[in-house]
Amino acid sequence: MAEIRGIGGPTVLIELGGLRLLTDPTFDPPGEYPRPGRALRKTAPPRVDPAGLGPIDAVLLSHDEHPDNLDHAGRALLDTVPVVFTTPSGAGRLGGNARGLAPWTTADLTRPDGGALTITSVPARHGPPGCEPITGEVIGFVLSAADLPSVYISGDNAALELVEQIADRCGPIDTAILFAGAARVPLLNGARLTLSGADAATAAMILGARHVVAAHVDSWAHFTEGLAEFRAAFAAAGIADRLAAG
Prior knowledge:
6-stranded mixed beta sheet, 20% helix
């Protein structure tokens, strides 16, 4: 499988095919982020300082509009990497090295060995049906190459029907990085904005994933489930052996 290191919240370092990719960068210390009618609260610092990451070949940014997926320090880091793959609307807001990928479009990154790693943007929905005007545009990613294990990064997706579409087009997946935590805020009547642990276990089975990495399960107060609930759900589903160590 790919080498994967959790940094905290949705931030994960992926090493695959000689490339180093970073998901949704969040590197601020704990604190509050005022939002219309509410505030999001970060409760823990990142496990690694940006200066300790080493070189990053690309950032895979599921969306740019929420501080629990892109905070102040994360925005500063974007300027230091060659390319940022994100939503088309996010690329318009970020400018610079940001490249927008609509769902089911692809981009290739050249590997050190001269081969290519294909990045496919896949659909995500950040909450219940109809949430898009409130939660905004979100994508996930599939990383693939003929000679490498495939990796799915869910982004802030709460829709299992979209996971089924991804499995149909891209499955089976070797490693699934699933953003869970059952995030909830007062908007949308407290509906879940990301997968619960039980949903993540279902997603893993839909994808045929051999390995699963939990992300988006810590460091923010509006995550209503943590790593313990994630692991318990996989144990209840009889697939705890698919969970990556850590």
